[in-house]
Known about the structure:
By secondary structure, this protein is an alpha/beta fold. It has 2 domains: 2-198, Rossmann fold (3-Layer(aba) Sandwich); 208-413, Rossmann fold (3-Layer(aba) Sandwich), CATH 3.40.50. Helix content is 43%, strand content 12%. The chain contains 16 helices and 13 strands. The protein has helices at 10-21, 33-40, 51-58, 69-75, 96-108, 127-138, 161-166, 178-187, 200-231, 236-243, 268-282, 288-312, 338-348, 363-367, 381-387, 403-406, and strands at 2-6, 25-29, 63-65, 78-81, 115-119, 147-151, 171-174, 195-198, 320-323, 354-357, 376-377, 390-393, 411-413. Strands 3-2-1-4-5-6 form a 6-stranded parallel sheet, with helices on both faces. A 5-stranded parallel sheet has the order 11-10-9-12-13, with helices on both faces. Helix 6 links the parallel strand 5 (115-119) and strand 6. It is globular. The chain starts with a strand and ends in a 12-residue tail after the last strand.
Amino acid sequence: MVVTVIGLGFVGLTSALGFAELGHKVYGMEVNEERLASIAAGRLPFLEPGLDAALSRHLGKNFFPSRSMAEAVRESEAVYFCVGTPYGENGQADLTFLFEALRQVLACGRDGRFRVLVTKSTVPPGTTAKRVTPFVASLGFEPGKDTGVACNPEFLREGHCWEDFIHADRIVLGVSDARSKALLCELYRGMTCPVFCVSPNTAEYIKYLSNTLLATLISWSNEMSLAADAFGDIDTAQAFRILHKDHRWGGCEMASYAYPGCGYGGYCLPKDTNALCAAAGNAGYEPRILKNVIAVNDAMPEAMAARIIKTAGVDSNICIGILGLSFKPGSDDVRDAPPAKIIAALNRAGYRNILAFDPVVGESGFRACHKNLSLRCAGSLEEVLTEAGVLALTTAWPEFLELRMKTEKPVVDCRYALKPSVKAV
C-alpha cells in the first residue's frame, strides 16, 4: 500500500517508519522546514531510541520525506493526520492544524479515487463523527462512498515510541464504513497484536481512557506524598515501593505511574486530560475527579519549589542546582515539563541563581519552549555539584540516582528516585 503521513513529530515519524517497516511505501509531510530537512538528511530531530536505525533502514527506499502534497496524496490509499492538537486556556483541544491539513489534502484528492483519511492525532470523542465527517462532506465529498473517514489513536510512550509501535499491545481502528475497515486492516496485516474495529467515538474515547487513567494515578500518588509530608516521619519512596509489592500489580510498568514525583508533563497527559475534562463539561457533565487531577498536578511545582526554598534558606542568592530539564528520563521533550514549572516558581519567589544540567537537553533546546526563565545551563553534573549550594533532582536520569554518594550538599528529591534510606528486611 501507499500511505501519506502528515506531521513528522514523535507520533507521525514513528507511524511513517512503522508502516515502512511493514512493507508499505510511505510519504512524510512536515510544515517545519528545518525538521523536514533534518529527517531527509537521515538525522532524527528529537531523541527517540530505535527510530534512528529505522530511519536509516527506510529513508529513500520506502520512506520519502516530501514537499509535494499533491503527488503524495494522489498516489496514496490512506492519509494519516499526525498534527498537533494542543489545548488552550479553557482546556479544549485546538483542532486548527487538523482541519487545515484536511483542507489541503482534500484539495489534492479530487481524482475519483477512494482513499481513507485517518486521524491519528488525539481528538475528543465525537470529533470524527460530528466534525471531521461533516467537514469532508462540506467540501463536496461523500464520506463512506468516495472517501473514507476514520481514526486510529496511538498508544506510544515518548522514549519507547518505536518499541511501542512494532510490539503494540493493541491496535484500535475507529471506522464506520466497510471499505475503510478493510483497507486499514490490510495496512496492519503484518502485526501480531489484536486489532479492534470500533465506532470512531469509541476509538477516540479509548485513547482518553488510557491517558487520563495515567494522569489520575500520578496525581493520586502526588496527593498521597503531600499527605505523607503532613503526617511526618514517613519514608514516602519506601512506602510506594512496598505498595508495588502487591501481587495485583503483576510486575507491570503501571507502577511507574502510581508513584509520586513533581507532576506529569510532556505533551500528551496535560493536553489530553485538560481536553477530556473540557469536552465532558461541554457535553453537560462535570468531571470532578479529572478537575482535581488537574488541580493537584498544577499545584505540584509550587509544592516542590517550596521544599527547595525551605532547604535553601532565606538567602535568595544561593545557587540552586536543578538536575534534569526533560519531563522524564529517556526523552529530550521539555514541553509542559515539571522542571520548567519548578524553576518558574523559584524565580517568582526571588531565587534566580539557577544552574541546571540535563544529559540530553541543552540550553538552546530548553529555551525554545521556555524563553523567560532565569537560569544557566551547566555542561556537566560535576559543574553543578561544585557550584550549587543546594541540589534538586527533577528528572530521574540514571546518572543522577547515586547523587547522595557524590555530594554531602543538601538534596531535594523531587522524584523520590534516589536510593532508599532503609532497605527491605
